[in-house]
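Need residues for this backbone.
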């Protein structure tokens, strides 16, 4: 039976009415969740390389978004969703007291699973875990009195049943960074004896850099997590000028977890070259047109050039722009990089803001590469070390 034109019109109007009401019935949290998901779906640069099923993520968390009734619940939902990206370079501009501390900026201990044991593989020098007396090599059995395996589930991606080593390492780093509202209690076994430590979580130092003359041949400059502060440029110039006659220079980037900006990075590297040279490659997806945009970033010489031997120290707390400087010096062929693998923070980030709740967030929208084509996050130091202690010993050997 054919429907009359009037009947068809009535059905069409009813359908449109129900659809519009369904849209308007969405809470501000549902609207913002879909905006959040869509921004990452369109602009996140690593969905494919990380094998993230982002549609599955929408399916899981959109159902939870329907139940959100307040801002705190929504922030928690967004934090859980970001865990699906399993990398420390994606974060919100706001947090709760119960929120996890950001990594690697607020972490101070590197725990790795070795067969069925969790071992301390590295410590952040001068920070809580180190100062509390924890030692590299100790076996960790409990975190805040609870088994580690059970707690990792909170940070592992839910879009898959298979969890890669990188996913597990992300979960471990997040767990041991702790939350803002609780003291950390770490239980270890050493020489058969059970011990408990309560490391304090310290903020980053205010000092932009530290420098000194180690001996008649060697100068030392340590950047203190200030690569995002343009005032560092002048301070670095003063430090380098005072060390310009030294045969060797050690540039310590082991304490740069929060990254920075390329202006500071290019200013630092510019003191070590005498001509314009490339230091990193950018890649950006133009998804609307199924094309990719590539460009090379260069370093230009500035002020008096340091001509001696340069040794760059890196580690698990060398992040983002610190990683960029390390691969840059390597690409410029102006330094020997010494240390452990770096933080492995993905790409260059961009900032976004949700329409309804005004919550800001950031994630990587560009992929970054060494001039030789290696992804920045996969770069391995020329002199590879196991931890900060070995890195410092190697630095002494090559510089002295």
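Answer:
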């Amino acid at each position: 039976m054919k429907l009359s034109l009037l009947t068809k019109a009535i059905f069409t109007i009813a359908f449109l009415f129900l659809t519009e009401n369904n849209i308007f019935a969405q809470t501000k949290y549902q609207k913002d969740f879909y905006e959040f998901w869509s921004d990452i779906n369109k602009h996140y640069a690593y969905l494919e390389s990380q094998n993230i099923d982002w549609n599955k993520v929408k399916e899981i968390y959109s159902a939870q978004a329907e139940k959100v009734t307040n801002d705190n619940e929504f922030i928690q939902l967004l934090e859980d969703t970001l865990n699906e990206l399993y990398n420390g370079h994606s974060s919100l501009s706001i947090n709760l007291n119960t929120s996890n501390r950001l990594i690697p900026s607020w972490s101070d201990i590197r725990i790795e699973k070795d067969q069925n044991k969790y071992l301390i593989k590295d410590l952040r020098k001068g920070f809580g875990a180190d100062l509390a007396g924890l030692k590299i090599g100790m076996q960790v059995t409990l975190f805040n009195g609870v088994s580690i395996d059970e707690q990792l589930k909170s940070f592992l991606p839910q879009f898959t049943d298979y969890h890669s080593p990188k996913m597990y390492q992300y979960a471990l780093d997040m767990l041991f960074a702790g939350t803002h509202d609780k003291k950390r209690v770490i239980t270890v076994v050493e020489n058969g004896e059970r011990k408990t430590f309560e490391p304090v979580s310290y903020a980053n130092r205010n000092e932009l850099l530290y420098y000194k003359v180690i001996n008649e041949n060697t100068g030392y400059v340590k950047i203190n997590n200030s690569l995002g502060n343009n005032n560092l440029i002048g301070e670095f110039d003063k430090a380098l000028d005072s060390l310009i006659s030294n045969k060797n220079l050690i540039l310590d980037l082991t304490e740069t977890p929060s990254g920075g900006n390329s202006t500071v990075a290019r200013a630092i590297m510019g003191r070590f070259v005498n001509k314009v040279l490339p230091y990193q490659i950018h890649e950006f997806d133009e998804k609307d047109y199924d094309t990719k945009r590539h460009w090379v970033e260069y370093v230009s010489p500035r002020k008096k050039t340091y001509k001696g031997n340069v040794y760059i120290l890196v580690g698990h707390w060398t992040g983002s722009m610190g990683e960029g400087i390390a691969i840059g010096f390597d690409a410029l062929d102006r330094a020997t990089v010494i240390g452990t693998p770096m933080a492995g923070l993905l790409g260059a980030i961009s900032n976004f803001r949700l329409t309804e709740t005004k919550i800001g967030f950031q994630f990587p929208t560009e992929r970054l590469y060494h001039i030789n084509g290696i992804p920045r996050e996969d770069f391995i130091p020329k002199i590879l070390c196991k931890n900060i202690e070995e890195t410092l010993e190697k630095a002494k050997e090559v510089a002295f």
